[in-house]
């Protein structure tokens, strides 16, 4: 394992070093939260791919492939479809708004006083998403150091918190690009072909496995539909995703880079399912499908290369964990703390650093208690989609939607989702069905029963969608340079 230790040590040192470099770039609130809104298409597509393909997509994707075969790819495919829809339909408008959070967009569209409720829901989602990827660290460090799960979570989580606190979105963006490259090499170019060859190729896998492992719908039509309902829609409205959209230098960069990222996700999803299928052919009696990724890496790869692939898995987990953590911190400072009557901080970057540190430690603590990465992700997305999807998409697409309708849909949708999780269980499909249905019904009824949004509010909203905020920022920069 000496070679593996060396590779992982270099990787960890590199992440901390890049985080330290990001400290020098994060001088303003815009730098810390959205990388100064300056990313080009390569950095944008790389960091977008990194943030959406985390521990659940990597370790969890291989787990689903081990359990269901190639149909286990549907979870990550649904994520890729969500990225494609977001960037083809909405990204241009989101970049022009020049906001920092989903809650700020809702306040702008509906006329204020919605971000407190949306912020609570988004805070819960981003925190649980941070927990999801932090939890997955246990799988990697268990293989490397034979340490208990809590220690692996503490090691990986501490690294993420450190570089996220230092440079905020700049550190996260720079580390994401490194992680994107490592992940592509480790998962797609090394582990995928090695796994298939070790299992005897497709013919060898077919000879050892049931035919259902090669059926696209073996995981179940209801499950596939639910994946699209939760993850595709969830990717349309998640703060962690929107915050990456806000980093694009121009609307065109956001659209083009996002489409590239969406296609990459589709390829990544199929690769994870095939690796899991190969693991099933090689190790049909694993005690837990969750161990499929670590087992095939440990047994089939030589030292050094094994360390690189484990670093690739760490990259997937760290990129999502750091992206969710900075999103949770942004929601906390922009949508929640400000609503508690706290005065605006003299040094907003320092306040965001402290908030990020506290939330990172909380996420590490929760991850030591939760024991299933896919279930944790399901909880996060169920609450997000059931509580906020209707109000957000309604605000972007339907002028008749009102603030009262948005508030009512958020409260009712969230309560119904949580209620059905307790009644039917986290893995049931009913929470998202009932939550989303009730949220839509309440939004429509209350919006029709309440006065239309004022022309003054809609005029400001339309001007922002047309790029007035971008023009105002450019004028301010020009004036500052002249003075």
TrEMBL record:
Gene Ontology molecular functions: transmembrane transporter activity
Cellular localisation: Membrane
Keyword Kinase part of the UniProt annotation: no
GO biological process, one term: carboxylic acid transport
Main location: membrane
Keyword terms: Cell membrane, Membrane, Transmembrane, Transmembrane helix, Transport
CDD domains: SLC5sbd_u3
Membrane-spanning parts: 6-26, 38-60, 72-95, 116-141, 147-168, 180-202, 214-238, 259-283, 303-331, 352-370, 376-398, 405-426, 432-450
InterPro entries: Na/Glc_symporter_sf, Na/solute_symporter, Na/solute_symporter_CS, Sodium:Solute_Symporter
Cellular component terms (Gene Ontology): plasma membrane
Any Pfam family the entry gives: SSF
Record membrane topology: Multi-pass membrane protein
Descriptive protein name: Sodium:solute symporter
Lineage, opening ranks: Bacteria, Bacillati, Actinomycetota, Actinomycetes, Pseudonocardiales
């Amino acid at each position: 394992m000496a070679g593996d230790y060396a590779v992982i040590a270099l990787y960890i040192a590199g992440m901390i070093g890049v985080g330290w470099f990001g400290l020098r770039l994060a001088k303003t609130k815009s730098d810390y939260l959205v990388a100064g809104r300056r990313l080009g298409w390569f950095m944008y597509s790389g960091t977008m791919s990194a943030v959406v393909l985390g521990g659940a997509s990597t370790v969890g994707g291989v787990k689903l492939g081990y359990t269901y075969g190639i149909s286990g790819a549907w979870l990550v495919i649904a994520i890729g479809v969500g990225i494609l829809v977001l960037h083809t339909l909405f990204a241009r408008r989101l970049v022009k708004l020049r906001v920092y959070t989903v809650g700020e967009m809702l306040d702008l569209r509906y006329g204020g006083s919605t971000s407190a409720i949306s912020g609570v829901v988004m805070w819960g989602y981003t925190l649980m998403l941070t927990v999801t990827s932090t939890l997955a660290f246990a799988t990697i460090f268990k293989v490397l150091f034979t340490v208990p799960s809590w220690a692996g979570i503490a090691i990986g989580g501490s690294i993420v918190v450190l570089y996220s606190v230092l440079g905020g979105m700049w550190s996260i963006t720079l580390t994401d690009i490194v992680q994107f490259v490592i992940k592509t090499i480790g998962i797609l170019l090394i582990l995928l072909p090695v796994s298939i060859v070790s299992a005897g190729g497709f013919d060898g896998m077919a000879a050892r496995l049931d035919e259902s492992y090669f059926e696209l719908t073996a995981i179940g039509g209801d499950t596939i539909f639910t994946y699209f309902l939760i993850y595709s829609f969830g990717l349309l409205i998640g703060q962690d995703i929107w915050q990456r959209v806000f980093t694009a230098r121009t609307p065109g960069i956001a659209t083009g880079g996002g489409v590239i990222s969406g296609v990459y996700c589709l390829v990544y999803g199929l690769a994870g399912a095939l690796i899991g299928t190969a693991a099933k052919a090689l190790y049909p009696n694993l005690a837990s499908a969750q161990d499929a990724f670590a087992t095939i890496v440990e047994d089939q790869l030589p030292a050094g290369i094994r360390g690189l692939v484990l670093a690739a898995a760490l990259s997937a987990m760290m990129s999502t964990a750091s992206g969710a953590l900075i999103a949770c911190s942004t929601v906390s400072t922009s949508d929640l703390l400000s609503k508690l009557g706290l005065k605006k901080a003299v040094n907003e970057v320092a306040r965001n650093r402290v908030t990020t540190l506290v939330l990172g430690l909380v996420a590490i603590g929760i991850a030591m208690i939760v024991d299933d990465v896919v279930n944790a992700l399901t909880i996060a997305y169920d609450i997000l989609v059931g509580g906020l999807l209707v109000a957000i998409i309604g605000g972007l697409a339907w002028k008749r939607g009102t603030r009262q309708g948005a508030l009512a849909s958020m409260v009712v949708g969230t309560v119904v989702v949580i209620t059905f999780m307790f009644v039917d269980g986290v893995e049931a499909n009913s929470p998202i069905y009932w939550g989303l249905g009730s949220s839509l019904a309440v939004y429509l009824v209350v919006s029709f029963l309440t006065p239309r949004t004022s022309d003054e509010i809609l005029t400001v909203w339309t001007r922002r969608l047309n790029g007035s905020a971008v023009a105002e920022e450019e004028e301010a920069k020009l004036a500052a340079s002249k003075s």
